[in-house]
Automatic annotation (TrEMBL):
It comes from Caldicellulosiruptor changbaiensis. This is Uncharacterized protein. The chain crosses the membrane at residues 12-28. Keywords: Membrane, Transmembrane, Transmembrane helix. The lineage of its organism: Bacteria, Bacillati, Bacillota, Bacillota incertae sedis, Caldicellulosiruptorales.
Length: 130
């Protein structure tokens, strides 16, 4: 019988420690990371926001993430949707409404930690905005 640690166990421990380090580095609590669905796509989006200096990043078919920017507010979202000819119509609390012709796009906004905002599109996906 072989004694020792298998490569698989070492890799698993390394990946677990890396995951915890990333959560600590970006100040994300473990309970938050799973509330938005797939944590990998969310972490990729946060990485792009932080390291590529992007203002808003798609993280799923119907979700966008943005770093909180107090003075600009919805400007990055408005600019992103303006590329697809959507115009801001109204905001009712955390719900934002955009219009394009006779179509309506409803987006729910919610905080994801203190540093990020997640936008969830209803009745549309990012592909159908075009």
């Amino acid at each position: 019988m072989k004694r020792g640690v298998s490569k698989r166990k070492v890799i698993l421990v390394f990946l677990s420690l890396l995951f915890l380090f990333i959560l600590f580095y970006y100040n994300i609590k473990l309970t938050y990371i799973f509330q938005e669905g797939n944590p990998i796509s969310l972490l990729k989006g946060i990485y792009k926001l932080e390291h590529y200096k992007l203002e808003i990043v798609p993280v799923a078919k119907n979700k966008l993430i943005q770093k909180v920017q107090a003075p600009e507010g919805l400007t990055p979202l408005n600019d992103y949707l303006k590329k697809y000819n959507w115009k801001f119509a109204d905001q009712l609390g955390s719900v934002i409404i955009y219009k394009r012709g006779n179509q309506q796009l409803v987006i729910k906004m919610r905080m994801f930690t203190q540093k990020y905002v997640v936008y969830e599109l209803y009745q549309h996906t990012l592909d159908s905005l075009k």
